[in-house]
Every structure is written in C-alpha cells, then in structure tokens.
Predict the structure of ABC transporter permease.
Amino acid sequence: MSAQLFSQFAKSIRKPEFWAYSSWLDIVTRYRRSRLGLFWLLAPVAMFMLVTGPIYARIFHRDLPSYMVHLGMGYAVWRLMVMVLTDSVTALRSNKSFILDGNTQLTDYTLKSIAKSVFYFVSSMLGMLVVLFWSSAVPPVAILSLFVTVPIVLLNLLWLGYSLSILGARLPDLSHLINTILMVGFLFTPIIWEGSRYPADSLGGQIVRLNPAYHMLEIVREPLFGRMPEASTLLYVLALTVLGWLLALFLCRRYSRYVPIWI
C-alpha cells in the first residue's frame, strides 16, 4: 500500500493536460481582459520589493542590493508556499463533481495546486533575476543553486499539499485555521527581517528555528550569497521531508478511500 501514493503521482504526472495545462489556462483566462495581462503575475513581488525594500534596508542598516535579494527571494518562496497551502486545503471539496465521477486521481489536484503556484513563482523569478544579477553580493554561479534548492521546497510542498487536501476534505474548518496561521506566520518568518539577528543559542533563535518556513527560506537564500545553510537547517529539512512523506503515505493508505464520502 505504501507504493499506492507514488503510483498515483506517477499516473498524474503522465497526464499533464489536467493539472498543468488547465492551471495555465485558468491563469490566462483570469488576466485576459486586463490591460497589463500576464504582467500581473510579476506585479505583487515587484511592488512589494520596490515599496518595502528601500524602507527596511535603511531601518536595518543594510546594503540595498543584498537586502533586496533577501527580501525578494523570501517573499517569492513564501508566496509559493502560501498559494500551495491555501489552494490544497480546499482542492478536493472544490472539485467534488470530478472526484465523484471517478476519472481522476486525488494527486491530480495536488499537482494542479503546485502547478498554478509554480507558474506564479516562475513569473516572479523573471523580475528577481534582474535583482540577482544587480546585487554584487550574489556570485553569478550561485544563481544555479536555485535548480537544486527550489525542487527541495517543491518536494516538501507535494507531501504537504496532498496531506492538507485529505485533511481538508474531512475538516472544513481547516482552511480557516490555515489562513489564520499563515497571517500570523508572515510576521514570525524572516522575510522582512533576518533570522541571523537571533543567535541559534538564544531563546529567540530557538523559537525562530522551530518555524519550518524559516528553514525553507534559508535553504534557498543562503546558497545565493555563496554560503552553506546551517547544519541544523539541513537536518531539519531532511527530517521534515522524510517524516512528511511518511505522513502522506499514512493518510493515503488509511483515509484516501473515504474522500468521496467526506466531500
């Protein structure tokens, strides 16, 4: 039964017309009538950086180019995670008719949530590339690290999105809880501020390092500056990945068959 989840993902990946093409079509249709069109995919991250970056760079006495990398990459990855979480938790309930029809895999909706969020993330990265090449703190070769670190984040979002979709089908209030946690989580995640302000051996540092989002951001941002993430971050992400997929396997084996009844 442990192979059931992976076989479902494999079947879903072989049919991208449902989760990839339909997600892109939804995005294109949404912005078709606007004058700026798909530019709106890039606008949120660009506006956040242009408005917030110069202000907080002066508050924190930071060099603007390097701080813009910290801020922009942090917000882009945070936005990716938030979009996957908020979409996944309602994915199965909002596609009730397709699921009851029996022609789709539950993993199709996880991949659809991931695909939609990745389209937005890639669009954000088009603007971030300008910042990355502009900042002297980022060695050009370090940009290639994104091809390793971003897939690690996506690997974790896969199990998290699937698990939340199953739990969200059973617990309708979970979506409200997730939205509340994410609103508060933005303040406790080093997106605007920097986690390095709190040493690992301090109480504040220990609290910060309990936050999974902190480690996800660090594993993406630190290599861009030519630095290795802390050993604790590497171990945290490894443990989170292994335990997370074990949770997803358990939920698939134990509860996936009840989804049509729950929704």
